[in-house]
Design goal:
This protein is an alpha+beta fold. The longest helix has 21 residues. The protein has a five-stranded mixed sheet with strand order 1-2-4-5-3, with helices on one face. It has one domain.
Length: about 110
């Protein structure tokens, strides 16, 4: 009887931990694809099982471009490098003037 109570309590505790820390539906989203690559814009993949395989910077030359034009220009620049990747994490330096793409490959 004591074993049953112990296992029930342990199972209940694990359920609460998972429900409140890991499975927060407000933090999950579906990302867009562009030219067959996953685009994580100002966010990180929830699947942390990936490696960074490259990085491409755009710098201030492209300041003032629309998001779509910036993404297109960055993808063209990346394709010239012939790096095999599954997704792209788009980031800026906080000023909105220097952009970079972090190339990732899922394991």
């Amino acid at each position: 009887m004591k074993k049953n109570i112990l296992f029930f309590t342990l199972g209940l505790s694990v359920s609460f931990i998972l429900a409140f820390n890991v499975l927060n539906p407000n933090k999950q989203a579906e990302v867009n694809e562009y030219e067959g690559k996953l685009i994580f814009s100002d966010c990180q993949p929830t699947n942390k099982n990936y490696e960074v395989v490259g990085e491409e910077k755009l710098g201030t030359l492209y300041n003032g471009m629309s998001y779509q034009a910036l993404k297109k220009k960055l993808m063209k620049k990346i394709q010239k490098s012939n790096i095999q990747f599954d997704g792209l994490i788009l980031e800026d330096d906080g000023t909105g003037q220097n952009f970079k793409g972090i190339l990732i490959k899922f394991k």
